[in-house]
Amino acid sequence: MSRLFSVETRQPWLIVRFASRWRTVGWSLTHPGFAAVDTIAWLEVCDADLPLGVDPIDLLNRRLDAAGLGGALGLMTARDIRRHHCAMAGDGEDQAEALVTLGLTNGAVLCSDGVPRNVMTATPVGTINLLVAVARPLSEAALLEALSMATMARTAALLAEDGRIVGTGTDCIVIACPASDSSEPDSFAGLHTPIGQAIVTAVFQATRLARETWEHENPQTLALSRSIRPA
Q: Which PANTHER family does the record associate with it (predicted)?
C-alpha cells in the first residue's frame, strides 16, 4: 500500500505534500470550505503565541509566509508535531490515509442532557487536527459525505473503551482527494461504499492511537474527564 502524501517534520512545522494540487474540504483557518492545494502545514504553537487580542488567522498566515509555505492550507496545534499519528486502510482507488495530531486539554464531555462541559476550568490550547486523503476523485457532495464519515470515526475513537471526551472547541477536519481527470468523480462516500469504509477505518485507527498516546502522557486530565458526572 503506497502512501498518498509525503510527510516532513521540521519543528515547529509538520508538512504534508501531495504530488499535485488536490481538492479539499474542511474548516481550516486559511482555506475554509472547498479549496485546492498541494501542501498542508501544521504549525506548533503554545499559549504564549496566542494571548488575548492576537488574530490566529493573521498569525498563521504570517508564519506560513515566513517559512516559505505561503498558499499552504494551514492548521495550528499545541501538540508536539512529532507526536502525529497515521493510519491507512483500503487499497487501490479505495485507499484512505489519515494523519492526526491530538491534544485534549481543551476537551469537553457531554452531560446526559447533551450539554457540553469543559474538562479544564481554564481553556488552554489543545485541539484535534485531522487530515484524511482518499485515492479517488470525489464530487463535492461525496467530499461532504466523506467529512461526515471522518467525524463519526474520530468521535467513535474518542469514546471507545470508556472515553468521555467527545472533542475540543477548536477541532478541524480536512478531506483531500485528487482532482478528477476526464472521468466523473464518485458521487458517494458513505458507509455503504468501499471508500467510505476505508475512511472510517483509517480515521478510527489513527485517532485511537493518538488518544492512547495523549492519555498516557496526561493522566491527570484523563482522570478529570472521567470524574465529570453526566448530570
A: ADENOSYLCOBINAMIDE AMIDOHYDROLASE
